[in-house]
Write a structure and sequence with these properties.
heterodimer, A: mainly alpha, two-stranded antiparallel sheet, 4 strands, B: alpha/beta, four-stranded antiparallel beta sheet, 9 helices, about 30% strand
């Protein structure tokens, strides 16, 4: 059997794929967090709950409404974004301009409430959610076996990340978002409805989390705790990438996912902590993060 | 030039937190007129601009543009009513290029300059259009700050110390630009410490002290009042 650095090649490729998939979720989630933090200066601890909500909405749509995966892929993020918009309009809005700690506490509280409700209704065991028929099975690539759904997750997440990056870097709305990240008052003094922009940004960030949740449902099962398990790692990704940096969030997400996968191959004992070790090192050497601007 | 006030401020009071900083400012500007606010540091000139624009929100009194009340409108509605604001710190966005900075403000009315006209007026900005906004020199940043508001079709400009910290040749250039804007009918409220610059562009002066207007005189009287002003302004 082929080996690479003493590791059987199929095992290595398998872990690289797993790393890419985890990296896809890290990237999509940290991207949403970066958009929200950049514009609203809110550290959105409800992000994990919004990811879980995306998966649960897809599950409930299927279970009660017979809505299949493909329409749910659009509907669930829209519903999660809608819930987020209500949260922003009624609660978060009151915290702008205050110490970021208030936003962190509020969203942390919201996450606990949302997760608590779903635990109460559904228990902690995962609910199965089957991938769509078109994406079941796998293909033999010669050097490894690729489950089609997992390949799809990587492709879809890349498309979402590139799409969001293009939206922010290349469109007029994106220019407003970038400018408002620097100086919201000046942007509003030009006649741009900045309060609406903030609402949309929170909806967009939460919608991305919801989308990641739907994509994750067939891989990890739908469970009330799926978000809180992931969100701590995602926050570490955001810190490594640089708070508020869009490109930093995307690249760091994939990079750390891959690194975590490789660690599982070469030194499995460290795989759960490697991201946090990197976070600590980055904080020591470059506190603004790899892609963040020094304050 | 019409005689009715175009921008009318009555009994404007404003607060920074608990601190009461404007104590009843009255101000009239006619259409197409350029008015300069003079006063010592801390007299309330910048605060007056910020309060008129609505960046400083804790206010009482009345602000009307073409008879339309602005005091209770959100900031973006004030801009859409036709008021443009160029702050002292210029507000250039570092994450945007010169061209993106220029194109950022949305059009609020017809009649704004085209990008070509702006580049003709400010050739430097055209040369440096792909540079990051904050990589420009101070003078170029000031020109960009003024230029980007000219695209939007605003009818009234609030300019806070446009010549501060700039070389004489750039001050001259900005003066030429303001003269050009006056020709095009722009109404301008200017805060300025540089008398020579202000004399070139202002039709009328207001004198501020301790958050109040304490006098007003036409532009041609500036030289005659120089002695009196130097006493009041401590210059």
């Amino acid at each position: 059997m082929n080996t690479i650095f003493g590791v059987p090649a199929p095992a290595l490729y398998g872990q690289v794929l797993l790393g890419l998939i985890n990296g896809s979720f890290y990237a999509m989630l940290s991207l949403g967090l970066a958009v929200i933090f950049g514009l609203l200066r809110i550290i959105n601890f409800a992000h994990g709950a919004q990811y879980m909500l995306g998966a649960f909405v897809a599950y409930l749509l299927l279970f009660y409404g017979g809505v299949a995966y493909w329409p749910a892929l659009i509907l669930a993020p829209v519903i999660v974004a809608g819930v987020a918009i209500v949260i922003e309009r009624t609660m978060l809005r009151r915290l702008y301009g205050l110490d970021p700690l208030y936003g962190l506490l509020l969203t942390f509280g919201l996450a606990l409430i949302i997760e608590g409700l779903f635990r109460y209704w559904f228990g902690t065991s995962g609910k199965p959610y089957a991938p769509p028929a078109a994406l079941t099975g796998g293909v033999n690539l010669g050097f490894m076996f690729l489950p089609i759904y997992r390949g799809w997750v990587v492709v879809a997440s890349l498309a979402v990340c590139i799409g969001t990056w293009l939206l922010i870097e290349k469109t007029r709305l994106g220019a407003y978002l970038r400018a408002a990240t620097e100086n919201p008052v000046m942007v509003q003094a030009f006649g741009v409805n900045v309060p609406l922009l903030l609402t949309l940004a929170y909806g967009l960030g939460a919608g991305l989390a919801g989308l990641a949740g739907v994509l994750a449902a067939p891989i990890y099962q739908v469970s009330p705790l799926m978000g809180s398990n992931l969100i701590i790692v995602v926050f570490a990704v955001v810190v490594v990438g640089g708070m508020g940096s869009i490109l930093g969030a995307i690249l760091t997400g994939y990079m750390l996912g891959l690194l975590e996968g490789l660690t599982k191959v070469f030194y499995p004992e460290a795989s759960n902590i490697v991201i946090f070790v990197i976070m600590a090192v980055v904080l020591l050497i470059r506190p603004a993060g790899l892609f963040g601007r020094e304050a | 030039m019409s005689e009715a006030p175009y921008l009318e401020v009555r009994g404007l009071q404003a607060w920074y937190g608990e601190s009461h900083v404007l104590h009843g400012v009255d101000l009239d500007i006619r259409e197409g007129e350029t008015v300069a606010l003079l006063g010592r540091n801390g007299a309330g000139k910048t605060t007056t601009l910020r309060a008129v624009m609505g960046i400083l929100r804790k206010r009482e009194g009345a602000i009307r543009l073409k008879g339309q009340d602005l005091l209770r409108k959100p900031l973006h509605h004030v801009a859409r009513a036709g008021l443009g604001y160029v702050p002292e710190e210029r507000g250039i966005f570092a994450s945007l290029t010169v061209a993106e900075n220029l194109l950022l403000p949305p059009k609020v009315a017809e009649g704004g300059m085209s990008v070509d006209e702006i580049y003709a007026l400010f050739p430097n900005l055209h040369e440096r259009r792909t540079s990051q906004g904050t990589k420009l020199s101070g003078g170029e940043q000031q020109m960009l700050a003024i230029a980007r508001i000219l695209r939007t079709g605003v009818t009234t400009l609030l300019l806070d110390e446009p010549t501060e910290g700039l070389a004489p040749v750039i001050v001259q250039r900005i003066g030429d630009v303001l003269v050009e804007l006056k020709k095009r009918g722009m109404t301008i409220l200017l805060v300025e410490q540089n008398f020579r610059f202000a004399r070139k562009v202002a039709d009328r002066f207001y004198l501020m002290e301790d958050g109040r207007m304490v006098g007003s005189f036409p532009g041609h009287e500036l030289d005659a009042r120089m002695g009196e002003l130097q006493e009041v302004l401590g210059v």
